[in-house]
Structure formats: C-alpha cells, structure tokens
Amino acid sequence: MNSRIAMFLFCVLAPAPVLAQTVELRSTDDFISVEGQIVGFNGSLLRVRTSVGVISVPASEVVCYGVECNKLVSSNTFGLTESAFQGIVSEPLPAAAPLPIAGTDALQIGFDSPILGTLYRTLAGAYAVASQTSNAVEYTPSGEISIQNSQTDQSAILLLAGSMESAGVTVQAVSLNGAAPGEYSMPSDWATGAQLTHQMLGLKAFSVIVAPNAGISEITLNDLAGIYAGEITNWSQIGGADVNILPLQMPNDSAVNKEVVRLVMEPSGKQIAGNILTMADEAGISAAISQFPGSVSIVGTANADDAFVVDVAGPCGIAVAPTPFNIVAGDYPLVRPIMARYAARPKTGLLTDLFDFASEDVAQRLFVSEGFIDFNAVQQDPAEKNARLSGLLAASLDDAQREAAAEMFQVLFSANRLSTTFTGGVASGPEGGWNRAVLIDLLDTLAAPSNAGREIIFVGFGESTAGSAAAIAASAAAAAALRATFQEVAADVIASGGNTVSSYGFGNVAPSTCIDGQVAGSEYTRVEVWIR
According to the model, what pLDDT value does residue 24 have? Predict the structure, then answer.
C-alpha cells in the first residue's frame, strides 16, 4: 500500500481554496500519516494541502481521523462521501505511545539559514509518506519527526533545536575545497553508512557574470579574490581589456555574500574590501552588468544571465563552465553542497535512512522547486567528450602519460560519461557525504531498463607529488577500490541488469577539472563513472 500512496504523493496539483477542516489520514497499518486539509476529490484520490504542498492520496486506503472528518463529509462540494474512505474515526487520534529509550537517537536539528529549514521540512514531510513499511514515521508540520523500525526495535527522534549550539544535527552548506580531516580510509566506510559524519541533501551553485567590455571569457578563483579584496583594479592586470573593474556584491548578511566569502575569499586568505558597491538583490546585479562598464559579480547560477557568464578555473588553471553537467559532476568549482552534519555519530541507521532519501529522484524533484539543483545523474554532451579525447592526440606527454593516454582513448572512445563523480582515496566527512549521495543516485540510474547489459566503468584521475607514474598508479587504485565497493553494494542491480563492471586509472592525463582533495597527503584522486 505504501508504494501506491507514494506514486501519488509527488504529483503537486494546482492551488485550491483552503478549507477549515484539518484532519489526519492514516493507512490501516499506521505506517503512513498525513495531516492537512482536504481540498478536493476526483472519485478516487484525495487532494490534501499539507506543510509540503498539495499532495494526492488514495481515499480507499486511508482512515480519516479527527472531529472534522464527519463535518467534511457532510459539507464538501466535491462529492466526498464516508464510503470513499477505508474508515472514519471522529474522535481525536490518541497520542502515540512514547518511543523506547533503548536504541534511540534523540537529537535536535538546527539550520544555518531559513531556506535550509524549508529544505529539511520538505524532505521530512516527503519521507513520512514514502518511507518503507519497516519504518513507522510520525511527522508534524513544524518539522519534528520520529521514526521507529518494528524489525530492529530501534527509534529516532529529531526535534527543532532552540539554538545552533544545542543542535546534534546541523543542516548547512559545506565546502569540498580547503582542508579537512580524514574520516573514511576506504570507500566501504562511507558506502555502508554505519559511521557517517555528513549526508548530502541538496546542491547550490554560483556563477561569475562580467560586463562584455571586460575582454575576458574565464577567470580564476584567485583573481576573483584579488578583485574583491581591492588588489586587482583593472581587467588588463589579468589579461583583459584596459578597463577599470567595478565589482558588485549582495549585502553582507545575504546568503549569497556569505557563500562568496566561503568559496572565494576564505581559501585565498583575503577579505572583501570595504568599498565594494552593494546592491539589494541578484536581479538588480544581473541588470547592472549589462549597463556598468567593467562590472563583475557572483550570483546564484539560477539568476545569472548566460550572456555574461564566464568560465571559472581552480588552482590548477583548468577553466570550467557552469553547465548543469559540470555542476552536478563537481567539476565546476563554485558549488556548495547542502549537508546534514552530525555533532556525534548516530546510534541507529534510521536518521541515515531519512537523509539518504534526499538523494532519491522524488526528493530531488521537490528540492528544485525550493531553488536547489537536481543532482540526479545526467550524461555528458558527446561533443564535450569527443573534444576531451581528441585533445589527447595533440597533448605534450611524458612516457607514462603517453601509455595512459593511448589506453584512455581506446577505452573511452565508445563510452559515455555520467555526471556521477567520486572523491577517491581517503575522504573527509563532506567528501564522504558527497560520495554516498552520488552512489545512491547511481544505483537508481543503473536500475533503469535502458542501462541493462551495459558496462559500468570507474575511471580514475589523480595528482601526485611523486610524478605522473605515481599519479596513474594512485588513480588506478582509487578506481579499483570504488569498483570493488560498488560490486558489493550493487550486487542485485548488477545481476538483474546483466551489467559488467571495470576500472582504469589515467592519472594526470586530460583531467576534467583540478584535482585537490581535502585530506592532507601527497596524492589526490577523483573517479568518474562512464557507461558503454
């Protein structure tokens, strides 16, 4: 029954007049509970206005609880009768029994900004309806949720924190750049989900927009920091036209400005100068770029005019455009994953289940309406793949690289790259959160009938202070480790789809972006996923 209700849940319908009757709809097994106002009925499906929007629920599979149920049946204008329900209980629903203390995670959750609270409530409300039958979920519109697993006798409670200091779980934007301690020595550590420090919910990206007369088509993160610090004042200083630079920014307390500081300024050790022109909103900034000579700004990708967007290069100088593929792959440097961070690792896997749900298709579609980027896997434009492989034929390479380049050309010539991309080797908490999210999405992607019988190729790239041969060896090892973990966790998917799995490592030959992990060491690796 849960699966049938879930099929209808995410069909958000047109707004309808709000009725006063608030009721609770429960499945007969008590595993699904929806609280809200019934605003329509088409003969089989109820339209219910909830805290996460208007959803559809099959009337014949739920019991209506509450003193308003009979009033609704007798006074509605859309033909809803008592016989449409599984049953009606007019008395208020008895309070749920207290959850057992043993095996319980009882935590408070806090949010770095109000929009992240909205993101979490959307997730929790959706999970409450679409959760598996082994989990009984209770959810209130304020965002408090309790989960109990009848098979393991484990339970979890998330309450809204009174302050960030009291939060055991914090939803916040994190960085995949800079330095962070290692949390996972091998892929199986984050893939099993037993000891997670971070889990990914959503994704934000930011674009650099520049006035046409600046004379540039790309910019480095370091040069951006220099501009906003007031150290670079003319575009000619970084290869552009002899035009004075006019940087624009959002207010200091805005979410965009805070992300600019974290993504651009803090990694460079610089601060934004006090004389930067501030504008009230991103729409005003985008309009000003076309009017103010030499202007530049950083805005949310969704609010950027493509005519003024330039590519952005990380520390290694590889410039990457903010295309949907590059953002979801993590190739583009100005991305900010939104993650749930645990102050202490959970005792049960129930909260892991909740936040894992954020990586599934249904949750990602809901998050898009909140202004976040859908990070479900997409396939790269074949022209971009071909350009990358063609570049191998004209590249200046050493002996180890030439051998790797020949193999890369042969292996990937008939394959297509998915946006699914992992941090290889030892991973930080945020890197492990990213890896786990894209792994969940990869499993969903490969379950599609169109991918049956295809080869899944884990392709490693890397950098090493010991040279290109060491980088190739490290990248091959990272790809092989991910392949082994994938074959273990995806055994059913591989078997049912008739897939084969392989891995290769090409080191520092034709990387798609800068390779710079968070955990200190002499080697860094990334692992792409290709299919053929």
Answer: 86
Distances (CA, A) of 47 to 9, 12, 16, 225: 10, 9, 9, 50
Q: What is the DSSP string of 383-406?
A: HHHHHHHHGGGG----HHHHHHHH
Q: Which of 459, 387, 390 is nearest to 418 (CA)?
A: 459
pLDDT tens-place string over residues 477-496? 999 999 999 999 999 899 99
**How far, in whole angstroms, is CA 445 from its chain's centroid?**
15
Burial class from Cβ neighbours inside 10 Å (0-12, 13-18, 19+) for residue 382 reads exposed
Which helix (H) or strand (E) segment holds residue 62: the answer is strand 62-65
C-alpha distance from residue 152 to each of 135, 329, 355 (Å): 10, 36, 19
Per-residue pLDDT reduced to its tens digit, 279-302: 988 989 989 998 999 999 999 998
Residue 381 has pLDDT above 50, yes or no: yes
DSSP H/E element including 184: strand 182-184
Contact 309, 226 (CB under 8 A): no
Can you read off the two tokens belonging to residue 248?
């624009």
**For 426-440, what is the mean pLDDT?**
96
C-beta of residue 356 within 8 angstroms of C-beta of residue 440: yes
3-state secondary structure of 497: helix
For tokens 């749920």, what's the residue? 96
Write the pLDDT tens digit of every residue in 91-126: 654 444 443 334 689 999 999 888 999 999 999 999
Residue listed under structure tokens 């959307």: 122
Residues, the chain: 532
The C-alpha atoms of residue 436 and residue 442 are separated, in whole angstroms, by 10
Q: Where are the alpha helices (DSSP H) in 341-381?
A: 350-356, 361-368
**Which DSSP helix (H) or strand (E) runs through 155?**
strand 154-160
The string of DSSP letters for 295-325 reads EEEEEEGGG--GGGEEEEE-TT--EE---HH
Taking alpha carbons only, the member of 220, 14, 212, 31 closest to residue 136 is 31
What is d(CA 276, CA 67) in angstroms, rounded to the nearest whole number?
59
pTM recorded for the entire structure = 0.79
Domains of the chain: 2-89 (no CATH), 204-324 (3.40.190.10), 375-531 (3.30.1330)
Nearest to 148 by CA among 133, 159, 163, 162: 133
